[in-house]
Specification:
By secondary structure, the protein is of the alpha+beta class. It has four helices and six strands, in the order H-H-E-E-E-H-E-E-E-H. It has helices at residues 2-14, 23-39, 94-106, 152-155; strands spanning 44-51, 62-67, 70-76, 111-116, 123-129, 139-149.
Length: 160
């Protein structure tokens, strides 16, 4: 039993595993996500840009309004115009950004580079190269406006 723990400790310290991903990166993801869950607001507005080989309309930046953990509104930062409904899944909540990263690790993406906000834990920027041998399948996301809480009085229905 001690050998198993020693092996797992060595794998974590060396940053590699038989699973194909960097254990340190996955641990950093989990730590950052736990921080976001602890200190991040449940309702917030933030803006995100997709860094990809895609149409300008699909790269943003897009401002996403999240209420109680659910995205409810998407608008282009530059114009304030609404994002077409079909493009909305490409601009997720902060929790959705964590999901994209977790999927990349689970799929054993060739390269994942990510920076996390030191105060709130959200992924402030990341790039994923899913397959070294394939061109134009990379994905990157950059938060261009940090998540700001939506005041409760804005969320609460008017009383009267």
């Amino acid at each position: 039993m001690k050998r198993i723990f020693a092996l797992l400790g060595w794998l974590a310290a060396s940053g590699c595993s038989d699973l194909g991903f960097d254990v340190r990166s996955l641990t950093e993801l989990e730590r950052s996500e736990a921080k976001w869950d602890r200190v991040g607001p449940e309702s917030y507005v933030y803006a995100v840009r997709r860094i990809c080989f895609c149409l300008v309309e699909e790269s943003g930046p897009v401002r996403v309004r999240v209420e109680d953990g659910v995205a409810v509104e998407w608008t282009y930062v530059a114009t304030g115009n609404p994002l077409p409904e079909a493009a909305r899944p490409r601009f997720p909540t902060v929790d959705g950004l964590f999901d994209i990263l977790r999927e990349a690790y689970a799929e054993d993406a060739h390269d994942v580079q990510v920076s996390y906000d030191p105060n709130f834990g959200y992924p402030s920027e990341f790039s994923i190269d899913y397959d070294e041998q394939v061109a134009d399948e990379e994905l990157g996301m950059r938060i261009t406006e940090e998540p700001l809480p939506i005041p409760l009085w804005v969320l609460a229905p008017p009383t009267g």
